[in-house]
Amino acid sequence: MTKNKEKQSARMVFAANLRLARRLRDVSQEALALDAGLSRTYVSEVERGERNVSIDNMGLLADALQIPLKDLVDPERFKVLD
């Protein structure tokens, strides 16, 4: 059995889900960063998959968006149909 698509890293799944969840809630990176107690630059780097985000900061970001952390690490949660 072969897979049609390459498996995404957990960091990239989190990055994509964070960005989409933030946009769906119409929240700027700056507002999200402020609510989470993080810098806007940090949030931007996380969303681009450039930061290896800690579990503590993942929790802060999920709490700031008022969604369960498990939704941000689920590769199928915010998947857009191809």
TrEMBL record:
It comes from the Bacteria. Pfam families: HTH_3 (PF01381). Residues 18-72 form the HTH cro/C1-type domain. One of its GO terms (cellular component) is cytosol. GO terms for molecular function: DNA binding; DNA-binding transcription factor activity. Gene3D superfamilies: lambda repressor-like DNA-binding domains (1.10.260.40). This is Transcriptional regulator.
